[in-house]
Amino acid sequence: MPLGTAEYLDFRKQIAELRQHNNKLLPRYYHWAAHVVVNFVLIASAFVWNISLLQNFRIREFLMLSILFVCWAVVEYAIHRFILHGTFFSKTRLYIQHSHFHHGYFSEDLMCAAAPIDVNRVLLFPIDVVALLMLNALLSFGLFVLVNHEIGILFSLAGVLYLFMYELCHGLCHLTWSYRIPYLRKMAEHHKTHHAFYHGGHSHYSIVIPWLDTLFSSLRRSTSNEKNRDGEHA
Question: How would you write the chain as a 3-class SS string?
């Protein structure tokens, strides 16, 4: 059932209030530019370290890396669908930070960052990037020992590359100008449906490889409520 004008305005007011509340909770030392730089340095350092461990990189290694990249995409899809939006994990920090704050910060009609400080709800926090890199290193070490060093290194490199692509693509989905570029608009619209109020975040989980939603039957048709009412992306 579509929202009435009064309900819709109240909904937007709630989002504005949540954004103000969220930003007041940020540490005094927080700066959006430092956030971007720290995340980039962490991921770039992990990338350089992995590249330094590679002994060869030919067509065979490229194909293996591509397959492992898709494997990481499936892992991210599962985390997004079953942990960040799964009722079993509804009391965890990850669920609350994502489903409550991120989805409360950005709705289908307010998808784009309105100010630089909004980066704090677009990018992962540095502590989360560190945790993901450590998880990547742990899993990769297991493959390094149990399979062989080549698979372990390529798996680790694929994880770092996927993390970078996730941060990049997710960030672009929340920028206004992305809706003016055909391919980026398609990607952004896909993610926009994930933020649709009536879907509750229970569809369109994948960002970097959207066709995973088709593969795992997690696509839903857009409704009139997911169309921009105020011409924000026109």
Answer: CCCCHHHHHHHHHHHHHHHHHHHHCCCCCCCHHHHHHHHHHHHHHHHHHHHHHCCCCCHHHHHHHHHHHHHHHHHHHHHHHHHCCCHHHCCCHHHHHHHHHHHHHCECCECCCCCHHHHHHCCCCHHHHHHHHHHHHHHHHHHHHHCCHHHHHHHHHHHHHHHHHHHHHHHHHCCHHHHHCHHHHHHHHHHHHHCCCCCCCCCCCCCCCCHHHHHCCCCCCCCHHHCCCCCCCC
